[in-house]
Amino acid sequence: MLSATRSSFKRAYSSAAPKTLTIGLIPGDGIGREVIPAGKQVLEALPSSYGLKFQFTDLLAGFELFKKTGVALPEDTVQALTTSCDGALFGAVSSPTTKVEGYSSPIVALRKKLGLYANVRPVKSVDGIGRPVDMVIVRENTEDLYIKEEKLYVKDGQKIAEAIKRISENATTRIGKIAMDIALQRQAVRELGGSSLHKGPILTVTHKSNVLSVSDGLFRETIKNYYTEHQDKYGSIQYTEQIVDSMVYRMFREPEIFDVVVAPNLYGDILSDGAAALVGSLGVVPSANVGDNFAIGEPCHGSAPDIEGKGISNPIATIRSAALMLEFMGYPEPAAKIYSAVDANLMEDKIKTPDLGGKSSTQEVINDIIKRF
């Protein structure tokens, strides 16, 4: 799926190739409680030839937990992730559309507490299904409007709301670097015979600096300068830019031209959800929240309360996210096995959940993928 972690993204904790990996499971809200077990089942079913065993730690977080306890992200969860887990899977979180005093998103908080500065979202079509797409959207995960520094005040009798958009040189440099490294690794896999729409690595920096000349201007200039200053390593990458509104238009008109797209937090969030429409459903699109020492796999869909409890939620995004987590932990071979099994399922019309036009249950899809190992 990502094909970007065979060497440079092996984490320090995986260098000793442990036989047993401890994975934190954070279902969260809604269908998160239905799809996280899918990731667990698939990891447990991996062939023994990979030499991996898994143990799991059940952890709590979410809006529903907040409504019960007043805490969305317990310190026990953070402590377990930082001290006893090698990686984690996060399901979904319900996000109220109006302000709820004292509540903030637990996944946003986890990204900050664990230093997970990159949200990596591969979007790839299966051969013969839908539009040809093979891109990775790399979203800066810690800044932009998502720092949630807002205020509401009254001026001249009218309410005014303001939000701070923060872009820093440090955060932009590291997101630009990881995006370029992903571009190089994807190209290395292509040269080994992996199929792709692209002949060479392409980096597309997305911004709105024509309007936000200071904040988005800094994002654009920082990545461009880093690319220019490190031509010895990144010179083979074709550097391009797209203003975000043009990026949206071109992504839907000609998605095949994009390889690795790097964007500030808000634009990356919107682009990656929109890109899911190119491959059928949010239910098939994975992501990983990545830092220098940890990775959390997270499906891109929400908590989907309209289908909660019906047993029809699509588990594929979570299953692919589990594979993506393994990639960033330094285990690309079992990850590739999972991707191959998922692709084989998608290429047949028999066993699919309703969001993909089928009539199968969540468990039927899980079983079909596992039998393809």
UniProtKB/TrEMBL annotation:
It comes from [Candida] arabinofermentans NRRL YB-2248. Keywords: Amino-acid biosynthesis, Lysine biosynthesis, Magnesium, Metal-binding, NAD, Oxidoreductase, Phosphoprotein. It catalyses: (2R,3S)-homoisocitrate + NAD(+) = 2-oxoadipate + CO2 + NADH. Residues 22-369 form the Isopropylmalate dehydrogenase-like domain. This is homoisocitrate dehydrogenase. Gene3D superfamilies: Isopropylmalate Dehydrogenase. One of its GO terms (biological process) is tricarboxylic acid cycle. Its cofactor is Mg(2+).
